[in-house]
Specification:
The protein is an alpha+beta fold. The chain folds into three domains: 72 residues, Integrase, N-terminal zinc-binding domain (Arc Repressor Mutant, subunit A), CATH 1.10.10.200; 83 residues, YebC, transcriptional regulation domain (Alpha-Beta Plaits, 2-Layer Sandwich); 71 residues, YebC, transcriptional regulation domain (Alpha-Beta Plaits), CATH 3.30.70.980. It has nine helices and ten strands. The strands form three sheets. A four-stranded antiparallel beta sheet has the order 3-1-2-9, sandwiched between helices. Strand 1 and strand 2 form a beta hairpin. Helix 2 crosses helix 4. The longest helix is centred in the N-terminal third of the chain and has 16 residues.
């Protein structure tokens, strides 16, 4: 799982320092509003609960969260967003999923197709790559923050079964989506601060990229994530830590 966790960690570090913090908030507000369409009570709506948790981790003000919920439930006026997933391939045959939330489907599809074409990738038909990914809770912890034995104890006590994955720089804990909140709470309760955490589409296998293909792949990821209507991008590349930091830094 190393490619996935390393990219998530770098994005988290960049986000904490990034001048684009407003864009992070915009995406979180969209997610909260979309989640709230199914009900504004986070105790009864797991997706909303997870979205609020993500917003709080980025220090979003409580009033912003409240207004986003009210827009989703219809208590406040707001745009109507459509959600869908676009699939494609990147350099080296890497599989990509882009989660979209937009008020204009045609505009967004055209924009994403342009981004793929400009960055050595191409869009694919629905179902072409999605079968390679599965939704999982994903908690990435720096090795400096915890020993593997301590993490195993936390995982067992929280009802988990799988051992943390060693990606070289971090430990990665994967859970069923329904177990994510409980596992994250157990990790934080133990005094451990994750490098990143989310419910994400995690790939089953990875494609190792080096050299020019690695650079092209990072540029494609960044271009997709810069698109206003893209909520999340998932890919099954594995690129070494040094290259990721040099190109994405």
């Amino acid at each position: 799982m190393s490619g996935h966790s390393k990219w998530a960690t770098i994005k988290h570090k960049k986000g904490a320092l990034d001048a684009k913090r407003g864009k992070i908030f915009t995406r979180l507000i969209k997610e909260i509003a979309m989640a709230a369409k199914s009900g504004g009570d986070p105790d009864m709506n797991p997706r909303l609960r997870t979205a609020i948790l993500a917003a709080k981790s980025e220090n979003m003000p409580a009033d912003n969260i409240k207004r986003a919920i009210q827009r989703g439930t219809g208590e406040l006026p707001g745009l109507t967003y459509e959600e869908f997933v676009l699939e494609g391939y990147g350099p080296g045959g890497v599989a990509l999923l882009a989660e979209i939330s937009t008020d204009n489907r045609n505009r967004t599809v055209s924009e994403i197709r342009h981004v793929f074409g400009k960055n050595n990738g191409n869009m694919a038909a629905a179902g072409s790559v999605s079968y390679m990914f599965h939704k999982k809770g994903d908690i990435v912890i720096p090795k400096s923050a915890a020993k593997v034995d301590d993490l195993m104890n936390i995982i067992i006590e929280a009802g988990g079964e799988d051992e943390p994955i060693d990606d070289g720089e971090n430990w990665e804990i994967l859970t069923a989506p329904s177990a994510y909140e409980g596992m994250l709470e157990a990790v934080k309760k133990a005094g451990i601060t994750p490098a990143s955490s989310s419910v994400s589409m995690v790939p089953d296998t990875f494609i190792k990229l080096e050299g020019q293909q690695a650079t092209q792949m990072i540029r494609l990821m960044e271009a997709l994530e810069d698109c206003e209507d893209v909520q999340n991008v998932h890919a099954n590349f594995d690129i070494d830590q040094k290259t990721l930091e040099e190109v994405a830094g």
